[in-house]
Fold:
Amino acid sequence: MHPTARLLLGLTTAAALGLGLPATAASATTASAAASVARAAETWSWGPTASSDRRGWAGGVVRSSGTGLRIHGDLYDAAGARTCSWLKIKWLSDHGRWHTKTFRNCSQSRVLSFRVNAGYMLTSSAKVCRGTSTRITGRCSGWEGVWSQGG
Structure:
């Protein structure tokens, strides 16, 4: 249990016993306090990761959910580039399998928001590349860590 939640639990219980409040009120207050503490620790930021020519870049957050982890973010394409920015995300699942998801943004005026439901993963990495509207042609960044179990 998180130290802050433990402190709140002790204080809430002591106050409820001292004031004669029902135990359900104390447990409801403790549950909401513990949930707010847990929510704060469930988001990790990553990026920005840029292509080698700096005309495409991506960044975002990793959030925990009831079904594992989700990678959220935005993929940008620089104005006047006349090509597309590509984002490739790979992650290792808890079953030992590598998965890959690719996103493309060819609009220099709009940001592409993306989301990957990675489930229970052990590690994930991303790289940003340049390319045409159909494939990656090069100018990629190296694989940069997005999230890893244990930090």
